[in-house]
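thread: overnight batch results

M.L. [08:02]
morning all. the overnight job finished for the chain we discussed friday. pasting input first so we're all looking at the same thing
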Amino acid sequence: MGTNISHDPAETQALGRAEGARCAAGDVVALCGDLGAGKTQFVKGLVAGLGATSEVTSPTFTLIHEYDGGRLPVYHFDFYRLDSAAEAIALGLDEYLDGTGVSVIEWADKFPDLLPAGTRWFRLVHRADGTRAIASDS
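M.L. [08:03]
and the structure it wrote out:
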């Protein structure tokens, strides 16, 4: 995918929708970026790209949200408030990663060693001109 520039939340969601359309069972999508960079907007698009109509919100305080109703379930994690990899494991991360849905992890760069090979990484950067640069390794 390389790097895309998003001018507004709708464009960030469109990039997420494209990612969701290509997701398969067991896929892991890792999102990195500062507060306000657009990670949750990307997830909104990804969930829609899988055909779900769920309202997507950041799981900053609940740590995980599950979205059903689409082609595959989506497991939306937020590592922002976690202090250790052990806390992520205690959430049952391994079970979700080995499951039949798509795992999407905000702040994934806090514990990258927990994620499997083949994880698709996206870095979202809020730029001075108000746009977001969204870089992907895939």
